[in-house]
Design brief:
By secondary structure, this protein is mainly beta. Helix content is about 0%, strand content about 30%. Strand 15 and strand 16 form a beta hairpin. The termini are far apart.
Length: about 190
């Protein structure tokens, strides 16, 4: 999770938020959930775009953007400028080393901050199968506290089959009804 601070006075409370939120004075990715260890799971990526900033009397202070990052993750800062507030330049990445703005000087500007979370392994329990038989059906069994596929199926298509000495009665099994047959058991008396 990454948080950003910008050197120029910017209202982070306003703007376009995509998987980001301004919380406790910091821009960060939104919290999606918590894992089994009560660790916060953040959105994998997100961005924030400022409202239009009138730069006319602050051109010299808008040459550089100071930034700090707290926590893990990575970020990129982009700027776009406009002479009239209607036609905007393409987003230009701010120099990560010195914070120098690479978009042309304009009367108006916008800032975009793109944040990537650091990926890590998490543990999430979807269902602990404590309710015995919750998922029992013809193909799945959950009676023993675990979810398992049944390997033995009773075919509704084999009826009246019998085995007697020297002969075998058979019935057709439609291949469209099965993707795979694990075994065929013959039960005799």
């Amino acid at each position: 999770m990454a948080t950003q601070e910008i050197g120029i006075p910017i209202e982070f409370e306003k703007g376009t938020f995509n998987n980001t939120v301004f919380l406790n004075g910091k821009l960060q990715l939104i919290e999606l959930a918590k894992d089994d260890n009560n660790q916060i799971i953040y959105a994998p990526e997100g961005y924030w775009i400022s409202e239009t900033i009138r730069v006319a009397d602050k051109v010299t202070s808008f040459k550089y953007i100071a930034k700090n990052i707290m926590g893990s993750g990575s970020y990129k800062i982009y700027t776009s400028s406009s002479p009239d507030g209607f036609e905007w330049t393409d987003w230009a990445e701010v120099n990560a080393v010195d914070g120098k703005i690479n978009s042309p000087v304009g009367y108006y500007a916008k800032i975009k901050i793109f944040i990537n979370a650091t990926l890590s392994n998490i543990s999430i329990t979807i269902d602990n199968f404590e309710t015995n038989g919750k998922y029992n059906n013809s193909f799945v069994n959950s009676s023993n506290g675990v979810l398992e596929l049944k390997k033995t199926y009773i075919s509704p298509y084999v009826k009246g089959s019998s085995v007697s000495e020297g002969s075998l009665s058979k019935a057709p099994v439609m291949k469209t009804q099965f993707k795979k047959i694990d075994s065929i058991n013959i039960i005799g008396g």
